[in-house]
Write a structure and sequence with these properties.
With about 160 residues, this protein is α+β, with helices and mostly antiparallel strands. About 40% of the residues lie in helices and about 25% in strands. Strand 4 and strand 5 (about 115) form a beta hairpin.
């Protein structure tokens, strides 16, 4: 007997989407916030993050999902993503929290309003290594940052788990 999961029906599947910029924005010290101030404070912080995100997305950035202390975004271009992330990090800081982000631009698979693929995985890994208040990005996103006159510091070759 075959115990492998069956693929979803054809109408739930989608082809590869046009290249997108995928970004993870993550609250910093969320576990400490929860431990020190309690579950309600943590839930409030997560709600604040989601509210800020929804207020800044615009037409070219889409909230894919929330995951407790983080959000996953999809943007049409690196510039669209960077403009949104910069505003988000600033607004999050104004609300008493710190955030960091990771972003990559490339192909993604869309399925059931979610995104999958190595672009998503790399953006997630980059968020985990970014410093507070910064965005760790790949070369295509860094080039867009320079065009927007955002300050960017090359990290050189770095080891990212799984890549």
């Amino acid at each position: 007997m075959n115990d492998l999961p069956h693929p979803p029906p054809a109408d739930d599947r989608s082809d590869e989407a046009p290249p997108s910029t995928i970004a993870f924005v993550d609250l910093i010290s969320f576990t400490s916030l929860t431990n020190v101030h309690g579950d309600l404070a943590a839930a409030d912080a997560a709600s604040t993050l989601e509210s800020i995100t929804r207020g800044l997305m615009g037409d070219t950035v889409r909230l894919i999902k929330t995951a407790g202390d983080g959000v996953l975004l999809q943007a049409s271009t690196p510039a669209d993503a960077l403009r949104c992330i910069a505003k988000m990090i600033e607004r999050i800081h104004e609300n008493g929290f710190d955030a960091r982000a990771g972003a990559d631009h490339g192909s993604v698979i869309l399925r059931n309003n979610d995104v999958f693929g190595s672009t998503v995985n790399l953006a997630s890994r980059l968020a985990s290594i970014a410093n507070p208040g910064t965005v760790a990005v790949t070369r295509p996103v860094a080039l867009a940052a320079a065009a927007l006159e955002f300050s960017a510091s090359p990290l050189g070759l770095i080891e990212v788990r799984g890549f």
